[in-house]
User: What shape does this take?
Amino acid sequence: MQLRCLLGELGAISVSNIFGIPVVQDSLDADGQPLNERLVSGAKRLITQLDWHARAMKNHRDTHGIPS
Assistant: This one.
């Protein structure tokens, strides 16, 4: 949540999806693999949204250029 405030001050856009892992030590095994489906589906949702924003911004930059 604190990073969202910083990104806003820097003029960056953050995605709206929040993917928190409240008890990370109980959410991953020793090899870093998720122990429940919630982690997998939440990460996919976040990455999909981030990818959509990145593509949209690139397309807009290619069409309209960078503001001065």
Residues 37-64 form the longest helix (28 residues).
